[in-house]
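Sequence in, structure out. Go.
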Amino acid sequence: MTKELSRVEREILLKTARQAIKNRAIGEKIPRLNLDEFSSRMREKGACFVTLTIKGVLRGCVGSLEATQPLIMDVQERATGAAFNDPRFPSLTLAELDNVQVEISRLTKPEVLEYSSAQDLQEKLRPGIDGVILRHQSHRATFLPQVWEQLATPELFLSQLCLKMGFDSSAWKKTRLLVEIYQAEKFSEGD
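Output:
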C-alpha cells in the first residue's frame, strides 16, 4: 500500500460505497466507474473491508484480503456485499439506509508471521496494529486490527479467531497454523 489516502480520496471512497448501497437498495443499477476520474491511489489494485454499523452495532462486514482490482472498484463491490450479502444479516432495507454508517478499512498486503511457539506468537502480535489471518488446510478467518478494541489480549484475540474459523478456541496453542498479519487504514463517515 502506498502512503495514506488524502481526505478528499477518503470522502470519494465513502461516497462511492454509500451510492452503491443506495442504488442496490432502490433497485437501480450500480454505476459503472470511469477509472480515469480517480486518483492513481484509487486506481491501483487494493484490498479493503467495508463495515456497516447502525448506532454502533454491526450490520454487515465484507471484504477482500488480496488486491485483485482497483481500490475504488473493490470498495464499491465490498459495500454492496456488506449491505446485501453478509450471511450473518438479512439484506439492508431502504428504511435502514439513512441510519447506517459506512467504514472502510484499506489493507496492506498480508505477510506471513514466523513464530516458534504459542507464546512466541502472542509476543509477536501487535494489539491495535495488526490484523490477523489464520489458515489451516481449507479453513481461513481474519479479524481486522480494530477488533483488538473488543478482544484486547493476544490470547483472547487468537482464541476468538479460531472459533470464527470453526476450530476449538485453543487450536492456536495446539496446532501449527499459518499466521499472516496486515495493517489497515481505517476511515468512516463523520471522521
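Check: The two ends are 21 Å apart (CA to CA). The helical segments are 7-25, 40-43, 71-84, 118-124, 154-165, 171-174.
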